[in-house]
Give the backbone structure.
Amino acid sequence: MADSTPRVVAKADGTLGVMCVGLGAVASTFIAGVELARRGLAKPYGSLTQMATIRLGKRTDERAPLIRDFVPLTPLEDLVFAAWDPVPDDAYRSCLHCGVFDKHEHVEPIRGFLEAIKPMPAVFDQHYVKRLEGINVKQGKNKRDLAEQLRQDIRDFKAKSGVSRVVLMWCASTEIFIVPGPAHETLAAFEQAMDANDPSIAPSMLYAWAALMEGVPFANGAPNLTCDIGAIIQLAKDKGVAIGGKDFKTGQTMIKTVLAPMFKARMLGVAGWYSTNILGNRDGEVLDDPESFKTKEESKLGVLDFILQPKLYPELYGKLFHKVRINYYPPRGDNKEGWDNIDIFGWCGYPMQIKVDFLCRDSILAAPLVLDLALFFDLAQRAGMSGVQEWLSFYFKSPQNIPGVYPEHDLFIQQTKLKNTLRWIMGEDVITHLGQDY
Ligand SMILES: NC(=O)c1ccc[n+]([C@@H]2O[C@H](COP(=O)([O-])OP(=O)(O)OC[C@H]3O[C@@H](n4cnc5c(N)ncnc54)[C@H](O)[C@@H]3O)[C@@H](O)[C@H]2O)c1
């Protein structure tokens, strides 16, 4: 039985600094969208923290407040932004470059605000993101020195902006695939590896280490290994800080984690699932490199195995052929097209097909997730919830799970878990949908 004593949640006093690693399409769309919403120029559609309600008590109670009225979240007015990027474009230039928002309707009206967000020099190394060249980059004698400079950036930002709290959001590129190794296992080994410039320590890990050392929660929006390693999990626990990831669940995978549970719920078999994407933004260009694609591929492939459980249902899912492709196709820019062809079978083995063609907008889907994660990570921190935040799996393609249990991928189980966690934080009954007491 869950304990129904409310947790002690520190008030969201003062302002919250949201520091984005990367000021590309996702981060600039997130920051500009928040400012547009604050000025009443656009609506924050897609964001649970801004739009969704939560049922409390029995269905007959008719209590369904907005989530933001139920839990003490930082209001949009109290968000302050900063970013790092090896590309020196400020948020205005980044918005224009990425072409997500209409220049005249949504970028020019907030030009001054966007121009004031200039990226700090990044910890960047082209070895980890082959298709990018950085000029706005920190120099240091070794990886620990670079990470220390990031810590100083966090402290300087706090002092200059006067924010009371900070969260760090990885909205930067997908790095090359890194296999977990001895340098990642313990904090001591990790720190030694930083001193020795060990190649298995990627820039994203340095940001995570720096954030945690400063007591700042870290959310990983890319499929990079980053904070999904023993050393960083240990540091998060030692410092009492919230972490989580990985890889924002936005387009094709969001659809996959809705359709696959449906097939399993009805005991329909799946013979094959072919997914392909075309996209033309910088993310697409980075993912055109096989080593970065491998990182993304792992993240996208994992979901079906966990949802369909082929070991439990070998006849239905044991022979499933699953393929994911991403193709860089510049004419589409940020407007990704994701196709799925699904071969399923039903009663007595008769085959059927489903085709999905999602004409989506990558950063329009991702931006509200960055907002929700920033606000929920800050909430978790104020509620004393440290370590891996599994309840935020809802937002991730490849959710970081607590060691020893498998990750939950079904979008609606994830949503139930998220809402029940909010109820639990506030001392409300969790909802089991049993209904025997009506
Ligand atoms: N729907 C989505 O858009 C979506 C979904 C899931 C995950 N993601 C991931 O989110 C990330 C951002 O996507 P995007 O479309 O904004 O890409 P983008 O290429 O437009 O922006 C990424 C930015 O990160 C910067 N960068 C790279 N390495 C850095 C470093 N070490 N430090 C600081 N900045 C660095 C790049 O210069 C670039 O400006 C990517 O990893 C992408 O795979 C996006």
The chain has a mean pLDDT of 95.
